[in-house]
């Protein structure tokens, strides 16, 4: 179904004899086309957005979709993500640009050359001025460039030139205003002199049929539908092959451009011609129905002066006197935008045969060929429009009314309302702020026992209705037979712990469906409760917008992307940017007007979506290949011709400039595989990584939405820190080996030292053992000698004791014995008792046992006599007085007296034991 008021057509030819009618019709067409037509999506790039001068003189697009623009400040390049400006050293204005086989040729004031991508991802300029040699350049600017037979032809308003790759030659002088390849020949417009073509000798040859155009300045040439088109400032001519002459374009096209001043012509396809003007934007002319659409500032362009045109994959690019615009000419989505702000946000619409009713936050409007008008009395916030039979009912913030012949009929003004529906008994029900009302032919009444606001109503059967509260939940309402009273109002519990908040209710395949808390449920009439809607389980977070003929449109409540499915074999996504992110958040509304045409409400108008064209588009998508346009770390920019190796200290900030030439995918997705593995979406063409660990990395980039199947890979390495570099690892290895060697030597020396210590210890222990054994032997000998001495002494004592007993016995019987003989025996006995030989033997043996005893005693007590020393020696042997007496040949009493005297000489205390003293001290 086509809306008649979207494309202005006329089926008759305007004759030159009725100029006033021509003027009226052309004005009417211009107004109609700019004010009421549905426009394809228009993207505006302001001079602030691309950060260059406002004027853009020429546009060229290469086979990949890269955009090149001749700007007042230099060459502008758009890689689909970011704009980059490259200026000439002279700072001259670039007037023309042409992309050809990897080179971008540009012309400016007395300067011609080409740009090529350099190793760093930027563009370097190569001037061809040295090739002019003997050609004298005046004050020329090069305004047009074109490739023909592998050579580059460029023109100025003073001459036509040719560059064959080696040299530049001047073909002809003259004011050249246009160039085009037609029928395998290069055709040029030479100002007011007509049209020429280049012959085989590279000479210009006048095209005789163009003599009809002489005297008129030809602004541009184009080839359209295998016809050569020539445009002057006021008219367009086409070459009639039958008559071999130029004729005016038929229909009203010339009338439309008469006061707009033609500047550029572009053949969009075999049906449509684009005419860029200096005063009124551009015209789109359809040769089949001779319909004209005008696009200017009033319907989306930034400026009415079109300086350049080019097209790529259905995308029309315009270089303007102020900015750059892009229009998706073939888009299955068209927009109506109210630029005045009068309409506001649209909440609902109804499409009639020749008009559209719009409910917005400022009132209820109708749109037809006469324009947008507010329905009288329809001011105020309107939520909903409903077409019930032949009635159009509006639910507004203050009342409920019916629209009749673009006028209002109040149905109820006691309160505002949200929604209107038709019951199975053909009764009109209105969900109001305070309950549910019923509209009859003559009255409006409220249903009893319902006192809460009702935002949406869906009938389960004739007597049961589901009502959605705007905030607090969902209710299942059972009515009386006459539908004037609610018999039962049941609060429907949720399946989770969350309460139904701002929930949505629908009827899907004759089932009650509930979208609540981002999940889908359906009512099981047999179990009398909600259960998970299995068919929609995967659509968590997707709210239903429209269901028509088993075709469903959902919206992702997080991203605002639309999703279409027939729940069988068809599905696709419509990203939010396709609707210019203009949906009314939280109040999204879509209306089906046919099997293929849907209308979507927007913040400042509405969009018309052609489902059939969208589905066809899915099979004709053009997806460009992303690429790396620049790579730098925190310190420097790297060449893209080799694998970058980044010093670790500069890896704190790694920036990649990515490009995705303009295509049906607008964003780049990435995966970084390496020590750190991350993925995401690139914003504004700049990808930044921070504090990457050292190691090898592989960056995979691919157009978002393609699931990463065909990705491009860019590899780079973050070098280890200096302390983990190759040379440092070598040093560490040497240090390790040296350390091992030192440890080995140290352990070897320590082992030797330990071995020496053990040997010394062993030797010492051996010597000590020998000494100990020797000491033990000596001690044994001493003990033996002590024992021998003691035995000898005791034997001597016994002997002396016996001798003294004998002497005593003799003294008893001295009367019986000869005195002489007795004296002789006594002398012998005394000699035996006091024998010096025995003392000397004793003294020698005693000294062997108690070395230096006598010396030490004499040193301590030099006044001791030999007799004192003898007593001391006996006491040192711990002999008793009784044992000492025989040895000294005196009585025990004599020994005691001698001991007493010895104590005196030694000056010992009375408490001191003499024997103990001698044993301890000597």
From TrEMBL:
Keywords: Membrane, Transmembrane, Transmembrane helix. The keyword Kinase does not apply. Gene3D superfamilies: Immunoglobulins (2.60.40.10), Winged helix-like DNA-binding domain superfamily/Winged helix DNA-binding domain (1.10.10.10), YVTN repeat-like/Quinoprotein amine dehydrogenase (2.130.10.10). Coiled coil: none annotated. SMART domains: HTH_LUXR (SM00421). The keyword Secreted does not apply. One of its GO terms (biological process) is regulation of DNA-templated transcription. Residues 861-918 form the HTH luxR-type domain. The chain crosses the membrane at residues 12-31, 722-746. This is Sensor/regulator hybrid. It comes from Zunongwangia profunda (strain DSM 18752 / CCTCC AB 206139 / SM-A87).
